[in-house]
């Protein structure tokens, strides 16, 4: 049996996380460089992983971690990479997040260790 407060707390935590990402989107996405690494955020409830979105946009997966809806990609060879990511299902983009922020990485790129 679930405690009402526990369910409410989990819901508020999820809403807070979404709000933080939306604020980051509004503050950061307009200044992203299309020619470098970018963190991809997909819909965590869609079942589509960020790595699938990156593959569909023909980008390079640089890092992925404990959450399948967040990954770091590079598509510097393609000036339309961000548009392709959006068309493939990316919700928004952030500057590259270090592997420490992503958690226990499945893939890593040493170039991102210092970011």
Please give a structural write-up.
It is a single chain. The chain is of the alpha+beta class. The protein has four helices and four strands; from the N terminus they run H-E-H-E-E-H-E-H. The protein has a domain at 33-112: 2-Layer Sandwich (Alpha-Beta Plaits), CATH 3.30.70. It is 38% helix and 17% strand. It has a four-stranded antiparallel sheet. The protein is elongated and about 50 Å long. 26% of the residues are buried.
Detail the topology: elements first, then pairings:
Layout: H1 4-28, E1 38-42, H2 50-56, E2 60-64, E3 70-74, H3 81-88, E4 90-94, H4 99-102
Please trace the helix and strand order, writing H or E for each element.
HEHEEHEH
Mean pLDDT: 75
CATH C-level class of the domain at 33-112: Alpha Beta
Shape: elongated
CATH architecture of the domain at 33-112: 2-Layer Sandwich
Entry summary:
The protein is α+β, with helices and mostly antiparallel strands and 115 residues long. The protein contains four helices and four strands; from the N terminus they run αβαββαβα.
Supply the key terms.
Alpha-Beta Plaits; alpha+beta; 17% strand; elongated; 115 residues
């Amino acid at each position: 049996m679930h405690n009402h407060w526990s369910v409410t707390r989990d819901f508020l935590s999820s809403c807070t996380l979404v709000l933080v990402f939306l604020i980051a989107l509004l503050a950061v996405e307009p200044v992203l460089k299309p020619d470098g690494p970018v963190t991809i955020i997909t819909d965590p409830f869609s079942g589509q992983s960020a790595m699938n979105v990156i593959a569909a946009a023909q980008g390079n997966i640089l890092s992925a971690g404990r959450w399948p809806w967040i990954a770091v990609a590079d598509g510097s060879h393609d000036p339309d990479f961000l548009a392709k990511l959006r068309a493939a299902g990316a919700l928004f983009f952030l500057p590259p997040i270090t592997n420490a922020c992503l958690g226990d990485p499945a893939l890593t790129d040493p170039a991102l260790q210092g970011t």
